[in-house]
Amino acid sequence: MSNTVNDAGTRTRGAATLAEPPTGTRSRILGIGGYRPRRVVPNAEIVDRIDSSDEWIQTRSGIVSRRFADADETVAMMSVAAAREALADAGVEASDVDCVLVSTVSHLLQTPAVATIIAAEMGASPAAAFDISAACAGFCYGISLASDMIRGGSAKHVLVIGVERLSDLTDPTDRSTAFIFADGAGAAVVGPSDTAGIGPVVWGSEGERFEMIRQEAYWPVDGFGGEAEGVEPDPESAKGAHVLRMDGNPVFRWASFEMAKVARKAVEAAGITVDDLDAFVPHQANMRITDAMARQLKLPGHVIVARDIVDQGNTSAASVPLALRRMHDDGETRSGDLALLIAFGAGLVYAAQVVRLP
Amino acid sequence: MASTDEIRSDLADIVNEVAGVPADDVKMDKSFVDDLDVDSLSMVEVVVAAEEKFDVKIPDDEVKNLKTVGDAVAYIERAQTG
Asked: Which of A57, A162, B30, B80 has its CA 20 to 30 A from that of A270?
């Protein structure tokens, strides 16, 4: 608009009209990728320090083994590997990605966001890049944000990454968490579509239950592990003070029953019924939670239920895309299938949506 | 208002459904964990089902006090009359 000067020759403040974003664009997931750390850790390696047994862990969680990242399998390294697989699956070049969104709680540097270095390593710069903190719900939060970015015109291809090295934040002697948490990365490319491929999100938070799953202590304000100036950094003591704690049974109750209601709302919001679903892919928190939710939802027999947790453990924000990739690779799901995703975790926070699989 | 034995019987059906324990084994003096092999996660499922069945609230903090079938029946009776 050039019409910002009136007849008297003086400029009128705020007179210009801003360009509007395109309307009518829809979104879908174009590709999925994952990275599973090399080292397989069977229950036998966990049990001694929690005075437990392989059978107890399997009965309590369904977990037989999990993977812990080696030193070189950093949050960024695992993310890049998962993202490259997702881009290949989508047939999208890294240079076509205009936003990288990473959900993690285990990038142990307050700033800058790990998303920036991932974008640079991928060759996606100058893509927008930022991290979100939505714990185990992070992937479904990210899919929702990415979908809205595409529909709102702020991006054409968004890389959504869920990545964790929870082994860095786990107390190996804690009977509530030591056998649950694990490491890995998953990624999805979200892009434009002619038809709606990502259903409306049903999401929320319950900060009243902030204490139920949380990092035990704040990072120290006066240095890594140090109580006062001049104290040498002590990574071991710092690790002990900043582990994740979880109040297992109340979390189980909330996740199994309250989250089933959220999942049902997401199906309704998508305008379909559970009969229309092909797959149910909940956050891989605990097999007992997955089973309880599936019972509450009364899923028909044809709906495939994700059970990646058996040999992957609970990888927080990475668990849903890792499970999706596994189901794709095993031929359990097909392109075009409708999957109900739900993820939930520390906050407490949750998000659910129905998506069409790439 | 349901009688004590009606509550026990309905609770036995719930325990059977959640944990596969024969309903006849769910007697007042039995411990959920030690006698009936109902672990703490199954116990949560029993509690949620009991809340719906008996229209009572059983908060998280109370669940650990319900060690025997009799404890649970007594809690439900009190909650119903309260």
From this structure: A162
Strand A65-68 with A39-42, pairing: antiparallel
Question: pTM of the entire structure?
Answer: 0.90
Here the ipTM equals: 0.83
Contacting residues of A for B37, CB less than 8 Å apart: none
Q: What is the pLDDT of residues A140-176, one digit of tens each?
A: 999 999 999 999 999 999 999 999 999 999 999 999 9
H or E segment and range at residue A204: strand A202-205
> Any idea which residue has 């949750």 for tokens?
A350
| A112 prior amide bond cis, ω within 30 | yes
Q: What is the DSSP string of A153-178?
A: TS-S-EEEEEEEEGGGG--TT-TTTT
> Checking DSSP bridges between strand A304-305 and strand A279-282, what pairing results, if any?
parallel
Q: Active-site residues of B: which are they?
A: 39
**Nearest-angstrom CA–CA distance, B15 and A226:** 51
Query: What structural domains does chain B harbor?
Result: 4-81 (1.10.1200.10)
Phi and psi at A152, nearest 5°, equal -90, -5
A252 touches chain B (CB under 8 A): yes
* CA max distance for chain B: 31
Q: Using CA atoms, how far apart are residues A160 and A143, in angstroms rounded to an integer?
A: 7
Q: How far is CA A151 from CA A148, A198, A224, in A?
A: 5, 11, 42
Nearest to B63 among A249, A256, A288 (CB): A249
DSSP 8-state symbol, A91: T
Interface contact flag, B44 A256, Cβ < 8 Å: yes
**Residue A347, CA distances (Å) to A104, A134, A138 in order:** 14, 8, 11
Helices (H) then strands (E): counts for chain A: 9, 14
Domains along chain A?
26-193 (3.40.47.10), 202-213+243-356 (3.40.47.10)
**Cβ-contact A164, A105 below 8 angstroms:** yes
